[in-house]
Amino acid sequence: MGFDTMAASVVLQKKRDGLADLSLLLALPCEDQAKAWAETDAQLYREIREQADKLIVLSPRYYPGCMIVRNRFMVDHAALCVAFLCTAKGGTAGTVRYAVREGLPVLNLAVADEVSAFLAGGDNVPLPF
């Protein structure tokens, strides 16, 4: 559905391609996350979830703010923040700002120059805003 789904799909494909040391850990904001999704999206979510190596579910039910809690959990347990950030508003922007405040290296895949700089050895790419 979005970047999370694309990233999970890439990890699963790389595992099928033979990268045995790669694992997919899903941090879910709530157990009923896909409750109101379209059936095709919910089905893809279930397929990815079934193939995950580990699931961490932070709440049994949705509540206002559970996505922010999940996003901060991911930052707090990561060695690198990989994002596709195009705007200064929204959950992704808030998560990247939190990662930067916490000193986590950020790789923004939405900005080609930043990807090149990161791959060349930069460890904290500036935000595009």
Give the arrangement of secondary structure elements.
Blueprint: H1 3-16, E1 25-28, H2 39-51, E2 54-57, H3 66-76, E3 81-83, H4 91-101, E4 106-108, H5 112-119
Parallel strand pairs: 1-2, 3-4
Tell me what the structure shows.
It contains 5 helices and 4 strands, in the order H-E-H-E-H-E-H-E-H. The chain has 129 residues and is mainly alpha-helical. It folds into 2 domains: 1-15 and 23-60, no CATH class; 78-129, no CATH class. The strands form 2 sheets. A two-stranded parallel ribbon has the order 1-2. Strands 3-4 form a two-stranded parallel ribbon. Helix 3 runs parallel beside helix 4 (91-101).
Strand proportion, as a percent range, falls in 5-15%
Number of helices: 5
Straight-line distance between termini: 25 Å
Q: SS-based structural class? A: mainly alpha
